[in-house]
Amino acid sequence: MEAEILPAANLVLQDTIERIFIEDVYADIPRGVFLVRGENVLLLGEIDLDKDDYIPEPYRKASAEEVHAAVVRKNQLSKRSDKVKQMKLQELGFEAEHSGEVLF
């Protein structure tokens, strides 16, 4: 297969599905039509649909709501953890990222 560089080749993707993996579950979420601007395209290729259907252990299919709830929980835990780290760094005299004085 030859690689070909397409300058500013915009892509229109139909019937797209976003597959989200978190912890031991995944969900397929229909997203519809996507327009991808050419400058954001690095590589385009075909996928093997048989391999795409294979889901490795220990993942199990779940509802989109269940996966979304798991993502929200993970993000909340991450925010708490980041806040604790920032507070400890401030105690040691370090300034947290994006908390400095804004100059206009």
Write up this protein.
The chain is an alpha+beta fold and 104 residues long. Helices cover 32% and strands 25% of the residues. The protein is built from two helices and three strands; from the N terminus they run ββαβα. It has a three-stranded mixed β-sheet. It is extended and about 55 Å long. The mean pLDDT is 84.
Write the layout of secondary structure elements.
Blueprint: E1 11-22, E2 25-36, H1 49-53, E3 60-61, H2 64-91
Parallel strand pairs: 2-3
Antiparallel strand pairs: 1-2
Characteristic key phrases:
single chain, 104 residues, alpha+beta, 3-stranded mixed sheet, 3 strands, 32% helix, 25% strand, extended
Short description:
The chain has 104 residues and is of the alpha+beta class.
Report helical residue fraction. 25-40%
Task: Give the amount of beta strand, in percent.
Answer: 25-35%
Tally of strands = 3
What is the H/E order? EEHEH
Spatial separation of the terminal alpha carbons: 52 Å
Q: How many distinct helices?
A: 2
**SS-based structural class?**
alpha+beta
Q: Spans with pLDDT under 50 lasting ≥5 residues?
A: none
Q: Average pLDDT across residues?
A: 84
The radius of gyration is: 21 Å
Sheet with most strands: strand arrangement: 1-2-3
Largest sheet: 3 strands, mixed
Shape: extended
